[in-house]
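Summarise what follows for lecture notes:
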Amino acid sequence: MKQVLLLSIALACSGAFAQTLTTAQLQAITQKHVRASFSELDALLSIPNNAHIEGQMQPNIDWLRRAFEQRGFQVSTLTTPTNPLVLAEKKAPATRTASPASNPKTLLLYMHFDGQPVVPSQWQQADPYRPVLKELGEDGSWAPIDWSKLQTNYNPDWRIFGRSSSDDKGPIAMLLAALTALEKEKIPQRYNLKVILDSEEEIGSPHLASTVLANKEKLAADLLLVMDGGRHLSNLPTLIYGCRGITTVTLTTFGPRGPQHSGHYGNYAPNPALRLVQLLAGMKDDDGRVTIPGYYDGITIDEKAAKLLAAVPDDPAQIAKTVGIAAPDRVGRNYQEALQYPSLNIRGLQSAYVGKQAGTVIPDRAIAELDLRLVPETDPARLVSLIRTYIEGKGFRVLDHEPTEAERMQYPKLIQLKASGEMLPFRTEIGIPEDVWLTRAMVRAFGREPVKIRMTGGSVPIVPFLRTLNIPAIHVPMVNLDNNQHAANENLRVGNYVEGVTTWLAILTN
């Protein structure tokens, strides 16, 4: 039976008929080649990749250059004032370019190879940059097992622990594995491929927009595919059509010039911490909806969108259990609807001290850090302006600097507002030809329709591609959502790695 299947694969892969590969054939090719790729995943994860640390990104760039050149790609670096981006290009033979005409001819693939900083003492292994294979024990803890077991009958529920295993080196290794499999199976390349690898995504990709603009012709493509982030909570194959953007706001309220004895000045010197929390508390109602006038203006969810959002197989009880809450805010009718609105989140508060360091003082200031998640209908500058107007309506003098002595004497209520860090949102229409093409590939990979998510909560810096290159973008997340990305003990489920290779094979032979 196995010989018959492999023969059918060989016949299907000959000539221009690579697109006829079935689900079983794609998965058989994956199983034939995936074990050989784990050593490359190990090698890539073993290279430290904190973009904040000078010199750490170059070894990653050198490794990626070699890996893609070995697969016939032309590799160049796109210079920035800090770390360069990597661009790997490989054209399809003219006779193999995708048809029919409605299909994309050139695919631009975006991933990043930098990772979040690590605190080794918080990890349950000796070195976050030395990946460790683990299995879940009966006591609920992850125990190390020998890496060589991946070469035998691996368990898809085993996990590979290491920094960037999921975010975002894992998907890069999956692509490399798929490219190797296609070459060994002599499956012809159907698309022109451009792979853009970001070296500074985890620090906001500060130079991405200018780099894309400077290399507009070189990056021209028909469709942008983004391989970052996790699948739906169910871990079913997923496509995502939009990401919220983000901007941040820092609010600082001021009290006495320096901390004052609460016995001497309590009931007399205004407390900036109390004023700040009163101000913040008024920004939302008991259901978690922002009360600032105009904050949700322009957001409409029509019947078509509501059906798409309701079709996502979310389990509210599972989400509550995963997050550890009794009941959610009620900004939308369900979780997916909640993501269609701009958010206003308090991400940090600070004033004086707590615990053993607590003192009996009236603080001199209080600080709140906010992040505002954006949707396509919202302008970040407008939202910040609405917040400013709201604060002024509460009697505060809004400053962009530390108050002067004259301002302290003149204005009873002082606050400093600073806005920074803007990453714009995007949303691609579900049902466009590029979506139909990609959905077909996913069905071929897994024999079922993918979960389709209109908008996800995270932010990625890809809007420069969409605006400069004028192309649609779709996320193809491959990793398990419960991967601890950005935290200690980041991990990648082995089954997701294998299915990621199958996903790449389906896309590249679609």
In short: Residues 23-45 form the longest helix (23 residues). DSSP finds 15 helices and 21 strands in the chain. Residues 3-19 have pLDDT under 50 and may be disordered.
